[in-house]
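Notebook entry, structure prediction.
Reason for the run: the old model in the group folder had no record of what sequence produced it. Starting over properly, with the input documented here first.
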Amino acid sequence: MAAVGAALAPWLAAGAVVLAALLWWWRRRRAAAGGAGRVCVAVLGDLGRSPRMQYHALSLARHGRGVALLGYLQSRPHGDVLRSREIRLVPVAELRGLRVGPKLFQYVIKVIVQAIQLLYALLTIDQPSYILLQNPPGLPSIAVAWVACLFWRSKLIIDWHNYGYTIMSLNHGRNHPIVQIAKWYEKLFGRLSDYNLCVTNAMKEDLWVNCNIKAVTLYDKPAAYFKETPLELQHRLYMKLSKDYEPFKPRTESVSSNAERSAFTERDEKKGHVIKTRGRPALLISSTSWTEDEDFSVLLKALESKGPLKDYYNGLINKMHFKHIQICTPWLEAEDYPLLLGSADLGVCLHKSSSGLDLPMKVVDMFGCCLPVCAIYFECLHELVKHNENGLIFRDSNELAEQLKMLFLGFPTLEGKLHNFRENLRASKQLRWDESWDQTVLPLLGENE
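New structure, fully documented this time:
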């Protein structure tokens, strides 16, 4: 397998060079139309699950830039994206169901087909001044985007969220030939970009030291709609969720048949105001994509004291018999997710960076809602979570269990540290995405306009 991988690498590189030369010749024969400041924001993944790229598109649109937002349309993007007149969605069909031949052969065929699909999509949009590409996934998207930039005479900006090869290594191991090829590819083609963004200072340093790539740190910041949810909106959300999910239904029957109640709130019949129910349970939320870089069993073990893995963890949940805990795994609409974060009492983050260089965006969103967090430790987490200031950091299920016991002791009468963490988050007046983007990215785009 190693020999096959080594043999494929030069052919893939040579093919990319030949294709680039042909496209460059073709492009020279066309009259230059000019990018007119347009930007293609591209991700070879689900746009609905790519909030940072949606934020990029919205920020560009806010400044009057025409945006082609390119990617898979598996789940619905945020309503602000769909309503924007400046943003045009460019769908790319996801390749599924290839089961012929060895796995290496399947992977190579998948990469080739994806490259053709992506190149076609990039060459059929209106000419952009910039292509802003998310990495990962970078194979084959970095090389394809670079070729498209040659064709359009555009600038390539890579937004480094992580390294693709480190994510691949979770399944295959770091020494697998595919992982080694992906690592070589990422470093080689990553250097061909004109500008680079990254999510942490740790990644910025690593890109420079190990890849000779100069990047600018653009921290993930919450969008304006991530904020504390007013009690009236909390009640409406709970009532909506209670129609489909048992944990949101009231624990006991109401004396009055006209009372409107959820597990957490009720509407006062006389005054019409919403109040929190007496003895309400704590609402703990852990946002997850059910992938290999999150070990959800850590939380399940703490309470008891792989999208790909959802069925596995649901199986574990069904085998556990909790007396005072109810677990719910809803799929939320994009507009409901920030409302639920802004209603919760505590967030738990189980994300472990595959590279140790990226930060969990879910925590950024939680902090935007002034929601305290317990987060599992990895190398650069301190750039976001400040232990005993805006949350707690744990290393295993036992430590998390002790933290949960301490934080929820006497809840909801006494909120103790939870209240202190929330007050610290309120006082921090953290920078929002729009302000951060304007300070970091906008000057970059204006250099050659």
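Summary: The mean pLDDT is 84.
The old model has been moved to the deprecated folder.
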